[in-house]
Amino acid sequence: MPTILQLRRGTTAENAAYTGAAGEITVDTTLNKVLLHDGSTAGGAATVGNLQGNIQLGKTGANEIDTASGNLTIDSAGGTITLDDNVTISGNLTVSGTTTTVDSTTVSIQNAFVFEGATDDAHETTLTTIDPTGDRTISLPNVSGTLPVLAAASTTQITSTPEELNILDGVTATASELNILDGVTSTASELNILDGVTSTAAELNLVDGSSAGTIVNSKAVIYGSSGEVNATTLQIAGSAITSTTAELNILDGVTSTATELNIVDGNTTAGTTAVAGGDGIVTNDAGTMRQTTTDTFDTYLAQTTKTLTNKTISGSDNTLSNIGNSSLSNSSITFGDGSSSTAAALGGTVVIQGTTNEVEVSESSGTFTVGLPNNVTISGNLTVSGDTTTVNTATLAVEDPLINLATGNNSSDAVDIGFYGLYDTSGSQDLYAGLFRDAGDGKFKLFKDNQAAPTTTVNTSGTGYAVATLVANLEATTATLGGSDIISTDNTKTLTNKTIAAGSNTISGLTSSHMASAVRLQILDSGGTTVKDLYGTSS
């Protein structure tokens, strides 16, 4: 069985009323504290710690942790040790972990930081300071990179900006070459004059020996204080300029371009730039060249009389006014009908008149309309060359006693000749009936109930086609019934295998002598029974 150590305990009030022996420890169950007694102070002389893991160790009068060996090792066993007050370490502090976090605004170091580096060896990097004579502040920039170092300690500040130092980026000059600048007294503005200069030494030497205002052979030309240069002769591309000063001064103030001057120099290429009223035109004013606007020319031309020959004036863009007939070569318009004509003066009135029942004419806002009236009378012939003539009239009166049909059928017998009409007995099917001469057999035929309208021929096999009935009195000298002529002036006919309906006909005076021998004539009643047999005999 393990041994249990149980300390004297009680509430805060009970501990406050209790004076323990020197070195005795009691527990405050109200505040969860551990109290150390000194044998004379009620409630204990000091608080060792609470019961949540914090323990107060023994301390000296200087508020130092007192250990027998002088060394203090704190092992939290993987936990966290929190010091919630000021801590002073008079000896060395060794941290064996990989990270030491200091959440402080200011970290004061008396001498230096020593960096071991990635390799634990005899070589370290020491970050230290020169003993300051005043408070100094060094700020690390907000960029990534490497800090440069100086070969020797110095109290001189570098006042150049990084941008200014970057100017030296890529400089390959040696110290000797840079020392040439030692002693130069030029200002920054004076040196900036050289910024961008690409001249060679030879080119700069051209200036050496030049004289302001005077041309020196093989030297650069420098203008005088008033911008003048004196020269005996001037040459361009080896050719001497022979113009006098007065002639050259003519160009003083000229701002024309080469293109503009070339236009004056007989340029034969015309442009297509639109002309506006404010555009200028150069004219010779009594020997002096002047410029005036297009509007000025327009005003001048409008005030004078001009003769236009073979010109076209746009009627849509211009207005012609105050032009009398006497000013025109042709002062009239001639109207003709092909056989006679009449000249009408410009400005006069021309009347276009129709003929009653033939042509009517109307006018509105300058537009003439010529057409036919509702009732038209044609006193001559009317020829219609189209394929169809439609007459939508209630009554068609034709004076001609004979109607001429199929006038184009003069080279062959290819079309039927006749007439037909339309009717409908059911209200849903158009039917056609008529009388025509059939080009196929040359016979006239009366038909009805054909459902297709005839074209150039009547389809006798068409749907519904039937022979129509003719109710009339016929008068003829010949007639054929069933292929036999039944009417003839000689009254003698031979019937072969024919049936004569007794109900519709009367046969009289007929005897066997009227029949050839071996011929039988049967007379039947309405039921088909033989009533009488007549046999022809030789007598």
* Low-confidence segments: none
The name CATH uses for the topology of the domain at 1-71 is Seminal Fluid Protein  PDC-109 (Domain B)
Largest sheet: 4 strands, mixed
β-strand amount: 15-25%
Tell me the structural class: mainly beta
Question: Roughly what percent helix?
Answer: under 10%
User: Overall mean pLDDT score?
Assistant: 79
**Strand arrangement in the largest pleated sheet:** 1-2-3-4
In one word, what is the shape? Answer: flat
Roughly how many Å apart are the termini? 179 Å
Q: Please, could you describe this protein's structure?
A:
The chain has 539 residues and is mainly beta. Among the domains are: 71 residues, Ribbon (Seminal Fluid Protein  PDC-109 (Domain B)); 38 residues, no CATH class; 51 residues, no CATH class; 57 residues, no CATH class. It is 8% helix and 19% strand. It contains 8 helices and 22 strands. A 4-stranded mixed beta sheet has the order 1-2-3-4. Strand 7 and strand 8 form a beta hairpin. The model has no long low-confidence stretch (mean pLDDT 79).
